[in-house]
Amino acid sequence: MSSKNAYVDKYAKGYGICYPEGHVIRFYQRICLYSLGLKGGRILDFGCGNGVHAQYFQERGFEVYGVDIISQAIDLAKAQIGDRARLISPNQSLKNLFIDKNSAPLSFDMIFANQSLYYLNNTHLRRQVDEFYEMSSKGGICFFTMMSRQNGYNKCITKVLDNGLSEVSLKGRLEEVSYIRFVDSTDELKEIFAPFKPLYIGEYNSFELYEPYSCEGSSHHYIFIGQKE
To answer: Given this model, what pLDDT does residue 211 score?
Structure first.
């Protein structure tokens, strides 16, 4: 069970952001640039989609590598970052996907996973975070987002699975079934992303209507910004 089919259908209908999202721009300006003085380096964009965020960081001096499981998305991302955009299979190991001229695996100064990790079940999420930590340079940072219980998707759960995922059946504007790994609290967020050291914990909610009632509800997500010590 996965959410891949929903995204295959979406991209076939022209899905994809056109501009960098506000929380990503603020992350770059407030954290990368101002707080950490990070003006360049190598980034892995996990779930890069059509490459809009990859292009945003590339234009600011970063060398960006992207992966996604949707072939239509990677075709679009290649227009932004070329062959550094790679199609992967669901739950594929990334350890040796990108190598240097001596065939050694690349290490990354930033692991960026925006709205992609919560599609993984508990086992695959744990394995992926551990792999990210291994692939990170010493002192490298991570930017991860997870869907919280405050998100409107939580109201659309039709089945709770024993692997940490919940089946979410959306009606109305979005007619699709997804499988989401929700997060209950910031304490749980920290546990999920250990051994990365937490630097900043936050949230974003890009759009929510109170009146009249909207079945889609809140778009609330948690943000975890951490570092490999």
So the answer is: 62
